C-alpha cells in the first residue's frame, strides 16, 4: 500500500481491523487495573540493554522506576503499538515494520555527536545511557495522519542528554538522523520514499523542554525494533513524524536543519508541526483523530493536550498559521 504521507497518493484511511471490539476493550481495562502486577511481570523478561542503565541495575529498582507523566485515558494495547507503525526504513505499509523488524541490527550501536558543542564525538549506546535514570512516561502520540495512541514509554529527558555535550551559545537547533547504510540499506531504504537518512530537528528550547524525551523502551520492556530501537525521540506535542526513530546522529547547529518531510512536501509538513486542530492538512482535517483500538473519533487537542507545558515556546507565533 502506498504511503498516505506522500502527496501523490491520496488514499489515506484506516483498516477495519484497527477497530477493537468490546472484548478487547474490557480485557484492556482489566490489564490497566492490574497494571502494577503486569508491569513487574514484564520487567522479569527485560533484556540485557537495561544492564547499561542505572535504573535497571536491579529488576526491582527498574520496576519501581518513577512514572513522571501519567495520562487519564486507557493505554493502547501493546499489540497495536507494535504492529501498526510508521517506520519507512522498514516499509511503508503499517504492518511492514513489524514484519521486517529483524532487518534492523541494534547492537553494536553508536551515536555521533556533532556541531556547536564542547564534547562532540562518537559515543557507544552504553556511553549514552550510562548516567541516566530511566523513568516511565505515558504520552499520547498523535500522527499527522489523524490517528493516535497512548503509549507508556521508558526513557529519560532529552535535555539531560544534550547538556552532557555542553552545547555552546551558537547551538540554536538540534538535528537528528536515523541510520542509513548505503551499502546495506534496510528493506524500505531500497526505494527513495524519503531522502535517506530520515532527518528531524528541533529548536534548542524545544529540545530542552522537560517533555522532550529519549525513549529506550515501552510497556516496561526494551523498544521493539519497529518502534525505533534502540533509542528514539518522543516529542508529544508535535505530529508523530517529528519523533525520529533509531537515532545515530545528533548535531547542534546555528541554523534550522533540513528535515525529511519538510524537504519533500513543505506545504504539508512544516518544521514546527505542532499538533493543532485549527490548521488542517491540505488533504484532510486535523480536527479529530482516531485512537487506535477505539471505535469513535475524538477531538484533537491543541499541542496534543500539552498546551500548558509548551505554549510559551511559541509566543508571538500565529497559531492559526501553518509552520
Ligand atoms: N526514522 C524514522 N522515524 C520515524 C518514522 C519513520 O518513518 N522513520 N515515522 C514517524 C511517524 S510518521 C510516526 S507517526 C512515528 C510512529 O511511531 P510508532 O511506530 O512507534 O508509533 O514515528 C516517526 N518516526
Ligand atoms: Mo506519523
Give a written overview of the molecule.
- With 323 residues, the protein is of the alpha+beta class.
- It has one domain (23-318): Alpha-Beta Complex (Sulfite Oxidase, Chain A, domain 2), CATH 3.90.420.10.
- It has 10 helices and 13 strands.
- It has helices spanning 22-33, 35-44, 59-63, 78-81, 96-99, 125-129, 158-164, 204-208, 260-264, 307-310, and strands at residues 67-69, 110-115, 121-124, 135-142, 147-157, 173-178, 199-203, 213-218, 221-222, 232-234, 247-253, 288-291, 297-299.
- The strands form 2 sheets. Strands 1, 4, 5, 8, 9, 10, 12 and 13 form an 8-stranded mixed sheet that branches.
- Strand 12 and strand 13 (297-299) form a beta hairpin.
- The longest helix has 12 residues, at 22-33.
- The protein is globular and about 45 Å long.
- It starts with 21 loop residues before the first helix and ends in a 13-residue tail after the last helix.
- The relative contact order is 0.17.
- The structure holds the ligand Nc1nc2c(c(=O)[nH]1)N[C@H]1C(S)=C(S)[C@@H](COP(=O)(O)O)O[C@H]1N2 and molybdenum atom (MO).
- The site of the ligand Nc1nc2c(c(=O)[nH]1)N[C@H]1C(S)=C(S)[C@@H](COP(=O)(O)O)O[C@H]1N2 has 17 residues, from loops.
Amino acid at each position: 500500500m502506498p504511503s498516505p504521507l506522500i502527496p501523490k497518493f491520496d488514499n489515506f484511511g484506516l483498516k477495519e481491523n484497527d477497530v477493537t471490539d468490546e472484548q478487547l476493550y474490557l480485557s484492556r481495562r482489566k490489564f490497566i487495573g492490574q497494571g502494577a502486577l503486569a508491569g513487574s511481570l514484564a520487567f522479569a523478561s527485560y533484556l540485557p540493554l537495561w544492564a547499561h542503565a542505572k535504573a535497571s541495575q536491579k529488576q526491582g529498582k527498574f520496576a519501581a522506576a518513577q512514572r513522571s507523566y501519567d495520562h487519564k485515558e486507557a493505554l493502547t494495547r501493546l499489540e497495536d503499538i507494535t504492529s501498526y507503525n510508521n517506520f519507512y526504513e522498514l516499509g511503508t505499509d503499517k504492518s511492514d515494520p513489524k514484519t521486517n523488524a529483524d532487518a534492523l541490527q541494534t547492537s553494536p550501536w553508536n551515536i555521533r555527536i556533532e556541531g556547536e558543542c564542547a564534547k562532540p564525538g562518537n559515543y557507544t549506546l552504553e556511553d549514552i545511557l550510562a548516567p541516566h535514570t530511566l523513568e516511565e512516561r505515558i504520552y499520547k502520540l498523535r500522527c499527522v495522519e489523524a490517528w493516535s495512541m497512548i503509549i507508556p514509554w521508558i526513557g529519560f529527558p532529552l535535555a539531560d542528554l544534550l547538556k552532557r555535550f555542553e552545547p555552546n551559545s551558537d547551538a540554536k537547533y538540534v538535528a537528528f538522523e536515523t541510520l542509513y547504510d548505503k551499502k546495506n540499506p534496510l528493506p524500505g531504504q531500497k526505494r527513495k520514499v524519503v531522502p535517506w537518512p530520515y532527518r528531524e530537528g528541533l529548536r534548542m528550547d524545544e529540545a530542552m523542554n522537560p517533555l522532550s524525551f529519549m525513549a529506550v523502551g515501552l510497556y516496561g520492556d526494551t523498544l521493539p525494533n519497529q518502534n525505533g530501537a534502540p533509542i528514539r525521540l518522543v516529542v508529544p506535542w508535535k505530529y508523530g513524524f517529528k519523533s525520529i526513530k533509531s537515532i545515530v546522529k545528533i548535531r547542534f547547529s546555528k541554523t534550522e536543519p533540513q528535515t525529511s518531510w519538510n524537504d519533500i512536501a513543505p506545504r504539508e509538513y512544516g518544521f514546527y508541526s505542532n499538533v493543532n486542530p485549527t490548521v488542517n492538512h491540505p488533504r484532510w482535517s486535523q480536527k479529530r483523530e482516531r485512537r487506535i483500538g477505539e471505535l469513535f473519533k475524538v477531538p484533537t487537542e491543541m499541542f496534543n493536550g500539552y498546551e500548558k507545558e509548551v505554549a510559551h515556546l511559541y509566543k508571538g507565533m500565529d497559531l492559526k498559521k501553518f509552520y
